[in-house]
Design goal:
2 domains; elongated; mainly beta; Thrombin, subunit H; 38% strand; 6-stranded antiparallel barrel
Length: 162
């Protein structure tokens, strides 16, 4: 039996042979790389296993929070699956690009106004597999200290977050 539940979760990682960026897990045929646009023959990709330990630097807090942002001239409202000190995962089936910059308005219960955060799309989960949701992983690139503190306080109050 594994010592930590994180050791059980494993996923294949595929890298674009042109730019070296991680490709979405749903690549199964010739498709363009979402980062550089080169046409990729997926039969030639080298797969390697990555675990949750390797992917996440911060502890996650499961939370369904309302989040709004603009993408491709469209105002989008979705919900998070989880949040951390350094980012969040938004459940969505909309098209996004790796390295896309988004200005997020995050509604946190108990706060009078939404948190305004600038983030970068660092992970895209296009195809849902059991126990995983389609969506995007956002890394915070600009969040003021007051907003970060409010988010951490919310996570602590909800789940005994450290």
């Amino acid at each position: 039996m594994p010592t930590e539940s994180r050791d059980v979760f494993k996923r294949k990682k595929q890298l674009c042979p042109q730019c070296g960026k991680i490709l979405p897990a749903a690549y199964t045929a010739e498709l363009p790389c979402p980062s550089c646009g080169v046409l990729i023959d997926t039969s030639s990709l080298n797969n390697s296993e990555i675990t949750a330990n390797n992917e996440r630097a911060e502890e996650r807090c499961n939370a369904s929070l309302k989040v709004s942002y603009n993408s491709y001239n469209e105002f989008i409202t979705e919900y998070t699956k989880n949040v951390s000190k350094g980012g969040l995962f938004i459940n969505t089936k909309r098209h996004h690009e790796i390295s896309e910059i988004v200005d997020i308005s995050l509604i946190v219960p108990g706060l009078d106004r939404p948190l305004i955060i600038k983030g970068e799309v660092v992970h895209i989960q296009i195809h849902s597999v059991p126990d995983e949701d389609a969506g995007i992983g956002i890394k915070f690139i600009d969040i003021d200290s007051e907003s970060r503190k409010a988010l951490i306080e919310f996570m602590k109050s909800r789940h005994g977050f450290k």
